[in-house]
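HUMAN:
Sorry, I am quite new to this. Are you able to go through these amino acid letters and fold codes? The numbers rather puzzle me.
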Amino acid sequence: MFYNPALFDFTREFERNWQAIRDEYYQLDRHIANIHRNQPHEAYLKTFLHDNAWMPSWQVNSKKPNHNWLTYGLSYQGLLPSEAQEKFPSIAALLTRLSGFKVCAFSRMEKFSFIAPHKHEELGGNLLTYHLGIDVVPGKNHLWVDKSLKNSVMASQLFLMAHTSILP
């Protein structure tokens, strides 16, 4: 199900601050952690909190890291990495002021990347997901959901997953 982003106060906050978010994204180093994210988020919490970096994501039926889809953790269950105030102070301030987020991350995808359908049961499932495009080519980024084309921002983006309790 898709919701109009204007229904949520937090989306307006992120959209109002998109330029600062974009600038902080571009300031991040491009170091990729030597990690294969194929376990629940908690398994990577120590790295996220103390040695944060871009992390290859998972892919279905593969034992190899997915370097076509990288994520950079910004918050997890209300926790921010130790580098937050130095590397992304505007985003850290937004996430500290707003509540209800399970996960917030930058997500970087290569052309023709594919993400298999998933629900994040380890985060409680039934989540509201919000994507804020920060480096996209108009008309060239698409998301297919249940065989329907949706306008999307599947390139460099801010990715948020929130509790369903904030649904209108």
